[in-house]
## 1
Amino acid sequence: MIKSRYPAFPYIIFMAIFIVVPLIMVAYFAFTTSSGEFTMQNIIRVGDYVPVIIKSLFLAFIATLICLALGYPFAYIMARKTSNIRRTMFMLIMLPMWMNFLLRTYSWMTILENNGLLNRFLGIFGIGPFEMINTQGAVVLGMVYDYLPFMIVPLYTIMMKMDHSLIQAAQDLGANPLQVFLHVTLPQSLPGISTGITMVFIPSVSTFIISKMLGGGSELMIGDLIEMQFSSNSYNPNLGSAISFILMIIILICMSVMNQFDSDKVEKEGRMVV
Amino acid sequence: MDKNTIISLKDIVVEFDGESVLRHINLDIHNHEFVTLLGPSGCGKTTTLRIIGGFVAPKSGDVFFDGKKINDLPPYKREVNTVFQKYALFPNLNVYENIAFGLRLKKVPDEEIRERVFEMLDLVNMRGFERKDVNLLSGGQQQRVAIARALINKPQVLLLDEPLGALDLKLRKEMQIELKKIQRETKITFIYVTHDQEEALTMSDTVVVMRAGQIQQIGTPIDIYNEPINAFVADFIGESNIIDGVMKKDYLVNFAGRDFDCVDFGFEENENVDVVIRPEDIKISAPEKGQITGKVESIIFKGVHYEIVVIDGNGFNWKIHSTLYEEPGREVGLSVIPDDIHIMHKMTEEEK
Ligand SMILES: Nc1ncnc2c1ncn2[C@@H]1O[C@H](COP(=O)(O)OP(=O)(O)OP(=O)(O)O)[C@@H](O)[C@H]1O
Ligand SMILES: [Mg+2]
């Protein structure tokens, strides 16, 4: 223990400067006026944006669910392939991440536009055109596309580590494939699920590019709101900080609820759910 | 296949990556029998169990259960349970829930589960551990939970893969007696894997000696010990002196530079053979009274007896068990009666 304290020292300083100080600054701005006096006014004004906050949480929640539903089977199948196929699949998952984030999102605009690729393609068969861009669906689609790898990677990692002998033990005791999944595979992959959810939900709930580009400004999210306070002519860093502050608290609450499910204590003390 | 046969392996061949692991295994296991698979590490004991459990599909050959071919039956539909070599306890469940697992799947009422789990905990001496996290148990305790988890389902056949491997000698002996008692009372057919020959001899009705994916000999412990079929079995089951000899004619063998009367016959004239003599069957006497003479090389006290090594005129080291002390360096005579001279065909190159 004593040994490890010294090498940790630079990191502690690093964390203090780049994490703790900014957090304090956010809190300071959130509770002061532009002239630096204490006020609750900023926090109270966040109340006006409750519908936006709820919508952001909702869209991020939907996107996270879709990522989980797509990513889980994908990771499960991938982990069972031979190492060559695994490597290829992993590459394909990571490949879009090498492209610029803006570019990826922008390309979805050209696909979804009213006279974009998709509508033109459907038009060949006399279907459509559909109103796809500037909808909540488009925003969720963008989130899923951008953040799906963050779901797959932790799930894949945990499934690679999974103990195959436990699956055999369950089969041996009479568990059919569904029961094996419910009692062995799923409980063992819970830590991966909770990491994946965290990694997708947090960037989704605070995104502003995706909602701006694919939601066309009509589907305003918290991220957009915060960004507006700093960049547009309604410049108000104090309000922006207050919204950020509230957002952090909401995320904190969401995560602690998640961790409740994660801790295997719950399972161990309680009886097995059949 | 007689009516009493519960499991039958017919000409089973298993290959992993082109390497043959089981080579034409034929084995009939009877109801209520305690069968032990015995053999050195890597000889295919676990693989044989996995064939029966359904976790490995044979390349060729058939598996029968109660007269029905079960080659394609998945493990969860087979009426066998396994105590795995590496326990494979569920880390997210406590001791109680690990043991209850099979019954929960069968939707047995809670009351009955409780009763049977506690019965099992008593049986394996783990009462009081039911709420414990299995990850915190010692190796021996985990092994006992694994035994309880398999036994609670009252399978027709229980497969046990070195279930006592992690226990200390005292607990091991206790559990041997316990398992034997359980087997006698429940009448469950036990297929037991070990590489401890003493364990195999004391517990089994039938011992199957395996080597490099092949069955060498099947028989009762007494048969296997007294009538080993070849030098490998003789050497693996207890200690042996194995010396090259020539079968002069029926009932006469030559080794250690002289002829001996023996009880074996049916060999070819002047066939090269392995002669096997147990260390406890050799008597030490004065040099002039022995059939072979030699010099005492070493003597070690082993508790019940001394282990004495005598080097004869040809340089062969004879292992002898005796309750009497012999001074190292002394000239002694060795003798053995015809009944205790076991003659075996040389193993062919392929068998080796
Ligand atoms: N899944 C597998 N893939 C490749 N080779 C395997 C596999 N399982 C077993 N083998 C090989 O098959 C041979 C027999 O293995 P097995 O586990 O049956 O031995 P064992 O008799 O149980 O040995 P031990 O006493 O050490 O447990 C070994 O050489 C092993 O390396
Ligand atoms: Mg083994």
Note: Chain B has a mean pLDDT of 92.
## 2
Amino acid sequence: MNLDYTAEEEAFREEVRAFLRDKLPKRLSDKVRQGKNLTKADMEEWHAILNEKGWLAPHWPEKYGGTGWSVMQKFIFETEAAEAHAPRIIPFGLSMLAPVLIKYGTEEQRQHYLPRILDGTDWWCQGYSEPGAGSDLASLKTSAVREGDHYVVNGQKTWTTLGQHADWIFCLVRTDNTGKKQEGISFLLIDMKSPGIEVRPIKLLDGDYEVNEVFFTDVKVPVENLVGEENKGWTYAKYLLTYERTNIAGVGASMAALDELKRIARTTKRNGKLLIEDPLFAQRLARLEIDLENMKTTNLRVLDAAGKGGAPVAESSMLKIRGTEIRQQIGDLMRRAAGRYAQPFVEESFEEGYNGAPIGPQWSGTTSSEYFNMRKLSIFGGSNEVQREIITKAILEL
Amino acid sequence: MDFSIGEDRQMLADTLRRFLSNEADWEKRLKVIETEPGFDRETWRSMAELGVLGALFGEEAGGFGGTAFDVAAVFGEVGRSIATGPWLATLMAGRLLAAAGESDALGAVIAGDKVVTWAHLPAHDSDSGEEHDVTASQDGDGWTLTGAKGVVDYLGAADLVVVTAGERAFLVEADAAGVARAGYKMVDGGSGGELRLSNTPARELSGVGAEDIAAAEAMGVVALAWEGVAVMDQLRDQTLEYMRTRKQFGVPIGKFQALQHRMATLALEIEQARSAAINVAARFDSAERAKSVAAAKYTLARVGSLAAEEAIQIHGGIGMTWELPLSHYAKRMVMLGHVLGDEDEHLARYIELMREGD
Ligand SMILES: Cc1cc2nc3c(=O)[nH]c(=O)nc-3n(C[C@H](O)[C@H](O)[C@H](O)COP(=O)(O)OP(=O)(O)OC[C@H]3O[C@@H](n4cnc5c(N)ncnc54)[C@H](O)[C@@H]3O)c2cc1C
């Protein structure tokens, strides 16, 4: 066994690092590191820089603009970018819709939509969840009824991340009520500017607006916006679960956050003592670093298997659970590091350019909001309970 | 043994519960936490007029209670409704005013005419990363204070501030010379602020020393422990209610054993936290006080964050919304862990006391 990158992988890592050093705007990496709110323009800026380099869509086939990287290269890229505090690439168009179009769409759909995803013309959002259909997604009710060359869509989606910025939404809709609930679902692309769509923001517990409710009232959708076959949408949605998810554990993001936490522990005093000198705090920090290092190797093992042709669904579930737990624990420790300064809540300070007097440690203002916001990691993307069900059945065969 | 809180205290708690549910209901809370003071002064005054604050102090100080279980009865209701307002600050500053025989000032506080807060812990200086505290200098017959205090509850709304400096405590008028206050909202509603003093005239709280300051802090932990358990009870009950009504896969999610066992663990832990709250109140006047304070605050923070995290997780997406009261309870719960020393600080303190052979 050998855990080292090969010489080629090492060279690739250097190339990625050099690119990030040259092209990642400091303004953006500072905002990410400080936990400030990213605007739509910020996210688009980084998206465009990657697109110009040709590195925006590593998961796509080369003929549509992919990079032709190995799974290990993708992992290296994702990890390095996160460690450099690059903004997260919004996954909806690039990593969720595109793979479905590439596998199940028509060539016409691919030619139309894929370039627009790359150049940023279309911002996509994901319309799966409904008020009554969360973990039990297949029970979704939003209906699409075919009338001539249109579907007429009625119903409601919810938790739609960044739907307020979106030009398009890909939806799972019900086209048949007669058989098994999984068998009456279709995959439909809907223009957010269509008459009959209403987006209502949902305020989250940290005061932020990142999710929405989307209401559909007699929305007309051309039949050519159907992806694949009618009533086969569930298969397409599930395809994403088996699709390579090299970044599901968020190793890079956790490594970056842990580095920041260690820096804080080495420089922040409480009761006259540096946090790193506090045996209880140091113990929490050490446990986290050990867990993260272990997970990184688990992740590489899964990637290696995937690179050799496996489709590791249940292993992805392990990575999703442990990855989100670790990320949440880092957030938890940041909040603890802030001590009593975890309490002030100065919303304006989350925005760029805020120049009010800082309160307490420079980094402490966003810790509680981030801690609470990160609760979402174990809820979305298949809750950690649902992931444990998958492990129970698929690996443990209980 | 007797584990009941007593009839009079129960009546007081019931009165406060009715008042809070009528006069400080959820809609009002949502509005008031968007404001700078973070509580409604008029509601505070009406609450005081009911005599509630008198329960926090003994008869000799113009109150009618003052024992740990009186404090417990009041703060259990504060937790139940996660009311905002300078409850803790009033308790702790008031205890020192009482110890010093400052009956005029304390009388005005108990009546709700004046708001008092308690400035004890140093401020963290953002530029240097150092902690800055207040020092006192004698100036003729009087004293002046210079320095800073951090995260002072309801500082912006306070008329009076009890400021500690070393082993002494002082009373400062909020509008006195050299007082600078930078206020902000708090994560769990309410408000706080950074206090800077420069040559500010202050009156020494005579006879108050390190013991009294420690006793006030200990009583603060009693209050937080009881408030915290009430918040936990709410988190548990609201989550159980949701588990009975939310259906996925055709059944209430409460039917999933994976969730049932998690709630069983949580229920067990909450009972442990309740016992810690009882311990600290019952042993308040004993030699075991210091240890049970550390134990209670450690337990509160540990079980509290578990309760908050489990409650949100088991609610799923809806548990993360501002609209659902649950998320506000979760925020209060976690923030209580940061008040008067956190989980690790109290565990360290416990270890120290254990080493000393207690
Ligand atoms: C911040 C955020 C962003 C999101 N973004 C999007 C988006 O862009 N697009 C989109 O379509 N959706 C999005 N979601 C929705 C997300 O996918 C759902 O919240 C998730 O599927 C859980 O559904 P639910 O919230 O309805 O919880 P429920 O399914 O009601 O679950 C409640 C609890 O029950 C547990 N549970 C459910 N079933 C079982 C079981 N069988 N065994 C054991 N436990 C179980 C769950 O794990 C959870 O703890 C987002 C959610 C959040 C919080």
Note: Chain A has a mean pLDDT of 94.
